[in-house]
Write a structure and sequence with these properties.
mainly alpha
């Protein structure tokens, strides 16, 4: 039962980052403070998704085929989230 719940949560987390696309079609979402906050929230969620799926795969030993796909995709999302944070923070530091 635990394996199915963790797998379902990881699968759900695969689709959440794509919800930014319809939100970015609004004019208010393209303005400076809202855009930065929205991208930061999505990047943080993507990093959390990668960590959650990795921990579920390694520590909880949920190692089915769906979880392997989730691990790869959420790890790529986490890398993208770190890159998004880096692109926002690095210009302010330098």
């Amino acid at each position: 039962m635990k394996n199915k719940i963790l797998t379902a949560v990881s699968i759900f987390m695969l689709f959440v980052p794509w919800t930014i696309l319809p939100l970015r079609s609004f004019d208010w979402a393209l303005e400076s403070p809202v855009a930065e906050i929205m991208i930061s929230c999505y990047a943080a969620f993507m990093i959390f998704s990668g960590i959650f799926t990795g921990i579920s795969y390694v520590k909880a030993k949920v190692q089915n085929n769906a979880m392997k796909v989730c691990l790869i995709m959420n790890s790529l999302y986490a890398i993208g989230g770190v890159a998004a944070f880096g692109m926002m923070i690095l210009p302010k530091i330098i």
